[in-house]
Amino acid sequence: MEKEQLMKQSIEARNNAYVPYSKFPVGAALLTADGKVYLGCNIENAGYSLTNCAERTAVFKAVSEGDNKFVALAVSADTAGPVSPCGACRQVLAEFCPPNMPVYLTNLKGDVQETTISELLPGAFSTEDLKYAARE
Ligand SMILES: O=c1ccn([C@H]2C[C@H](O)[C@@H](CO)O2)c(=O)[nH]1
């Protein structure tokens, strides 16, 4: 099943996480409309604020390869409950993913929260807001 497979891939994506500071590997698996899966992990930096989260790594990999039609996302970490994407990732996901796109948040115990992009960031700032400012 797509959901189970994607969650499994997001757990495997944690293996490449570069997390010398937090020691908190996160994995993401982003499914495209034509069936390709982009994996992402978090990549930290000695300048802590330069850290890139797993979710944004997956999105940026896909977009930079010319893929920007997404249909599902799974995110995994070793958390008490299903992992919660940070605010920056929610905003980036809202830019590229359909509002009703399923997002599977999970952890290593197998807890799953099935949500959507718009549930993760209701009222996201978007390209529509920019269009209003540019009106003549
Ligand atoms: O959804 C999340 C939450 C956190 N992190 C990363 C950022 C940092 O490397 C570490 C601790 O915040 O986890 C992610 O990659 N995704």
Automatic annotation (TrEMBL):
UniProt-annotated catalytic positions: E55 (proton donor)
EC top class, as a word: hydrolase
PANTHER family the UniProt entry points to: CYTIDINE DEAMINASE (PTHR11644:SF2)
Family to which this protein belongs: Belongs to the cytidine and deoxycytidylate deaminase family.
Listed GO MF terms: cytidine deaminase activity; identical protein binding; zinc ion binding
InterPro entries: APOBEC/CMP_deaminase_Zn-bd (IPR016192), CMP_dCMP_dom (IPR002125), Cyt/Deoxycyt_deaminase (IPR050202), Cyt_deam_tetra (IPR006262), Cytidine_deaminase-like (IPR016193)
Example GO BP: pyrimidine-containing compound metabolic process
Organism: Planococcus donghaensis MPA1U2
GO cellular component, one term: cytosol
The keyword Zinc is assigned to this record: yes
EC number(s) given by UniProt: 3.5.4.5
Name of this chain's protein: Cytidine deaminase
Keywords per UniProt: Hydrolase, Metal-binding, Zinc
Keyword Ligase set for record: no
One Pfam family, short name: dCMP_cyt_deam_1
Binding site for Zn(2+): C53, C86, C89
Necessary cofactors: Zn(2+)
Domain CMP/dCMP-type deaminase: 1-128
Reaction equation(s) it catalyzes: 2'-deoxycytidine + H2O + H(+) = 2'-deoxyuridine + NH4(+); cytidine + H2O + H(+) = uridine + NH4(+)
Function field: This enzyme scavenges exogenous and endogenous cytidine and 2'-deoxycytidine for UMP synthesis.
Binding site for substrate: N42, I43, E44, N45, A46, G47, Y48
